[in-house]
Amino acid sequence: MSRLDSFLRRLIAQRDGIDWAAAAVAGVPGDVVDIGLGYGRTWDHLRARLPGRRIWAIDRRVDCHPDCRPPEADLLLGEAGPMLDRLAATGARMALAHYDLGFGDEAADVAEAAALSPRVAAVMTPGGIVVSAQPLTGLSPLPGPAGIPPGRYLFYRA
Ligand SMILES: C[S@@+](CC[C@H](N)C(=O)[O-])C[C@H]1O[C@@H](n2cnc3c(N)ncnc32)[C@H](O)[C@@H]1O
Q1: What is the pLDDT of residues 41-51, one digit of tens each?
Q2: Is the dihedral of CA 121, 23, 26, 39 positive or negative?
């Protein structure tokens, strides 16, 4: 498979996974967090799929399209660990979290995801779903939507 095909399949899995999780948490109260705002693509998609929910965003910097800049009150700017702690301290709990940290150094990305997993779990409401680009620990794995090959994108129940 070419790198272009691989990239496209990952983005399709990301989009389809978010769509599936957004429908699955319809009856679960809570906010949403995009962990890794980046260019704001997934934040914008979450906003489109989950109108009426507060959508927090975490990143160490803002590098998104101006149309995709979250309101200041929902933007947690800094390292993911402390920002997850800050989110937990607000008392808000998440019905859906999307974890999208990582830059392609697989070992480092997997290690960071494992280290951050307890802090991700701490912001979730029971029954909430985490959609993740990286493997997380301490959450219950879900099969996710049909059509996404196992391992391409990851799904967990809090
Ligand atoms: C793959 S990009 C996110 C892409 C984004 N979801 C989108 O759709 O445009 C990863 C982002 O995570 C951020 N990041 C990576 N590690 C981080 C960390 N430890 N704390 C805070 N932000 C981090 C990077 O600055 C980068 O913007």
Answers
A1: 999 999 999 99
A2: positive
